[in-house]
Amino acid sequence: MRITLLLKLLAVNLPVIVAAMAVVWFAVDILGANYFSTLMEQYGINPDDTHRMFIESIHRYLLQASVAAVVIAVLLSFLLTRRVLKPLAAMQQATRRLARGDYTARAEPASRDELGDLAEAFNQMAAGLERGERLRRAMVADVAHELRTPLTNLRGYLEAIADGVIEPDRETLDMLQAEILRLVRLVDDLHNLSQAEIADATLKRERLDLPRIVEAALALERPVLDRAGVAVEVEIPDNAKRLMADEDKLAQVLGNLVRNARQYTPANGHIRIAAARAGGRTKITVGNSDPVEALEDLPHIFERFYRVDKSRSRASGGAGIGLAIVKSLVEAHGGRVAAQSRDGWTEVSIELPD
């Protein structure tokens, strides 16, 4: 803790000490002396000499007492103020560590007063920064991992073509185009994720027709679903057909949920989309008939680049960004997401408030 703050706090106490001493000086010098003179007159004693001696002795002792009082008060104020400021000094050190990039820095709450509350708020901020930095590093590593495979394939084949090892036939060019499309999809997903994380600033809420948006999301996947023999069941009661949301973002959410269900539904399986309304909130559930065997995966499926089926290829299973986009868009609406796997079904649900 810099000495200037300590001196400022001491300077704040000094006027109080001086004012208290002035009151004592006035009481003894004026009131006490007058009372002493009155007493001397009552007993027939000439008060002049005695009064002068009394005043002189009182002034001398008051001056000595004042000096002693100031020294003691300053010493006690210094010690007590430094003790009070000790948590601030520790927080200052933690702040400097945080500024240097050490996101593990924490301030120990030394009391249950305002300084303790400040330390708790600082720790929450530091924890948030640490979590954000950890996610940032993980995302950079994940993006690098996702980009490495297609870029390595492209480089290898292009070098082989340039060296004359491989002929640039139709099959090779189609494969190179597929790798490029993978890169384009990944970049698009990353862009959509970045936009979803700031979606709360661009929301345009309006009353929407939920069945129409659901049908539009299914229409995009219908050819693939029909080829795989996947049956789709939609249950939307009348009281849940209208809801307040941003149309473009809700369409993106439902599109990602339907696409995710389609990717993890086996051939001749089922997809079920249901809606319900209760307590001023609309709950939309998209389920597919393929339970998650590892239930410990469920809490993580909304994380970036997380994929339940580690064996599924990146080309067919996606990069694991779709549900992260869903989570960001739903939370931008003030809603929440959840997932469960039971009775042969895996269900992802969202809840949106009015």
Describe the structure.
The longest helix is centred in the first third of the chain and has 53 residues, at 47-99. β6 (336-342) and β7 (345-353) form a beta hairpin. The two termini are 50 Å apart. Mean pLDDT is 80; it is low at 310-317. A 5-stranded mixed beta sheet has the order 2-4-5-7-6, with helices on one face. The protein has helices spanning 3-42, 47-99, 114-162, 170-197, 210-228, 247-263, 314-317, 322-332, and strands at 205-209, 231-235, 242-246, 270-278, 281-288, 336-342, 345-353. It is built from 8 helices and 7 strands. By secondary structure, it is of the alpha+beta class.
Summarize the structure.
This protein has 354 residues and is of the alpha+beta class. The protein is built from eight helices and seven strands.
How do the strands and helices of this protein lay out in sequence?
Layout: H1 3-42, H2 47-99, H3 114-162, H4 170-197, E1 205-209, H5 210-228, E2 231-235, E3 242-246, H6 247-263, E4 270-278, E5 281-288, H7 314-317, H8 322-332, E6 336-342, E7 345-353
Helix pairs in contact: 1-2, 2-3, 3-4, 4-8, 5-6, 6-8
